[in-house]
Amino acid sequence: MERDERPNTEDLLEAAQMEEEARHRGRLKIFFGYAAGVGKTYAMLEAARQRKNEGADVVVGYVETHGRKETEALLDGLEIIPRRRVPYRNVALEEMDLDAILERRPELVLVDELAHTNAPGSRHLKRYQDVEELLSAGIHVYTTLNVQHLESFNDVVAQITGIRVRETVPDRIFDKADEIELIDLPPEELLQRLKEGKVYIPEQAERAIRKFFRPGNLLALRELALRRTAQRVDRQMRAYMVTHGIPGPWPAAERVLVCLGPTPMAEQLVRTAHRLAAHLDAEWFALHVDTPADRERPPAEQDLVRRALRLAEELGGKAVTVPGLDVAAEIIHYAKAHNITKIVLGKSPGSRWREVLRTSIVDHILQHSDHVDVHIISARGDAFRRTRWRVGRTSGTLRGVLAGSALVAAVTVAGHLALGHIVPVNLVMFYLLAVVIAGLCWGQASAVVASLLGVLAFDYFFVPPRLSFGVSDAQYLITFAGLLTVALTVGSLTGRLREQVELARQRERENAMVYDLTRALVAAQTVDEIARIVVRELERSGWQAAVLLPDGGALRAVTASPGLHLDDKENAAANWTYRYGQPSGRGEKTLPGTRARYLPLRGGKGVLGTLAVAGVGEAEIQSPGHRRVLDALAAQVATAIERAQLAEEARRAQLASEAERLYAILLNSVSHDLRTPLATIIGALSALTRAKHTPADPEWSELLETAREEADRLNRLVGNLLDITRLQAGRPQLLLDWCDLEDVVSHALEQMTPYLKDRPVRVLSDAGLPLVRADQGLMTQVLINLLDNAAKYSPPGSPIEISLRKGNGEVHVQIADRGQGIPEQHRERVFEKFYRVEQPGSPPGTGLGLAICKTAVEAHGGHIWLEPRPRGGTVVTFSLPAARGKEVEQGDDTHGDSAG
Known about the structure:
alpha/beta, 51% helix
């Protein structure tokens, strides 16, 4: 059986979608190197000057020359956008002026140092986000980047050089670039340039050679840059082979899952998983199991998870947070449910007490992972020593331990008072009761402490010899063991029960909020009502909210909480979210200085508006639970708004359809009622004009002629009304025949002679004009309408030109006048029924002529359009399919047939 080597349809569809997106975006070219001084900026400027010589519109958005004269020389002749000055701590920092570039809208802009961090107060935290906005606006970008600034290599570079790079760029920016140009220079030449002062000033150069620019570092960084570039080329080659059906040894699809907890190595795990996924060309996920204990951790530890999940999204992974109690079980369940083939786990030295990375979880996953490969990554000890201050019990846990201890003390005091009335062994049940209460009220840690203290207190105060940990009867050891075992088991179970109750309550709160909002939105009929419901429901949860929807080209707050004031900064964030479909504001990297967080309301047809949410603490708004709830709420709101908008569109369409039907009935009735008396009037006027007994007074003759011409005009109007109702009543019946358009033009000019007698009409026609298959009477009416418009809307005596051209299997007919022209905003709508452009001196009309022309031409399979004429006037063009020789011969056998 032969192998099917045709391209996969899904791959082709994905490639087509990417091409469609790229058509509306700017192109990104990265000049990529392994260190400063290899010549990235120089190469970028040379390429820009070449593009400028080719006629491209090139501007400099931001270029840092570092005082290099040869680089500064390349800036001569290039337009430079002035930098924006940002005041910060009594210092004016210079940044790229993003808004000025967007307003200027060049074809190509140069943006140096892609990994740069913008000054506080800028719209975006990072320069690569500025570049993304420029690309979304359709502006091409040239930029520069060093390999050590790629986020996935951050840990590797730190291990090689001993220096942690703080300014990084997500790998997705590098992967999505349209072109990568590797700028390479042997390390020996780079070191020579450093010594000659061509990279840094001598003092800086000497310090750089000692610390960063060591030969070993440069060789390692150069290898990273070469490997990363080769990896990208390999992925491009494989994508090309897949989409073009070129056979090859394709590996099975891989899926990578990295498991994250509140540990300092979480970001290291994300980068490792990204490199593994990139090497395998695999989809990858970052999973965090959110346990009740995690919500009691210090904010610093919770922030470790948030940063790692955000890093995973920036690197192109899918960040997922699932609630649960058993971390290992949740990881295995997710891996099996999503067909994961490789799991990445972290293991820290001497940190068994840390929940996510303790050995028992790793062992449990290894035992139940089946055919899934498990990669265990060890953390560097220094990383944990640097962050050991973050670890500690929360105040809630300490209170639980103290409360459990107090319960044991209370049981001990009560037992001492009742010692003469009960046997000491019976006190064991009261200690177990204390353990159960501690577990239910304060959790597992409190229950474990109560268990241990209970055994010790029972031994010390009630077992002979009393006030001693010694035991006179060995059978008490069995009692101790039983008490400790039962107490620990009961305490653990009650503690887990309490955690399950808390987890269920949290899920219930989240689900109840979404359910209440969904139930309230079901009954909403209008967008305004939906907005009021959303704000009301969020206010009930202690939040402040606003719903912003587009109105006249700008966002408008349909409904907002009284305490949420949307100033210019807030509106800027809302508009940015609406424009780019990404969250912004508080807790995000775009405009983080705002009071509210802004979420896009994304529907099936794109972004419908923006949801603003405020009144939440910084840690709370960034927590996975709140983000999950807000995302779900935004999705429900978008669905409801889209449903209301579709319902309103359907209602309008129904009203328009009904109005159209009534229009057609009325026009048809009036037209038929007018046709008979009009024919009588025209016949009588024609007879009077030709009668011999008519008075010889010239004024009488002129009056009769005017009356007859106006009656003819009214007759054409009635004919137009009949034509438009017939053509748009359904599929029109056309009397098709082979027509010579030159004859059709002559016939139309003959009928329009009385109205064109004071105008020169010039007819130009290509030789050998092919025939067209058309309804000759209807096409004559099209030309009459176009000539009538040209005569009415151009000065008396001005010429009218008619051109008949052939090409591309079509015949093009043009009618050009020297009138006022039609403004650009009206050129599409003039083909609508009853639409007229009101201009000074415009003659009266019905707005039906061009509508009839459009309907008639399209019924023949043609197209009609208009465009401005140089030096004033309008050119209306329509095209009809031209006949081929065989078609004409076959058409002779079906002469005069009709088409439905």
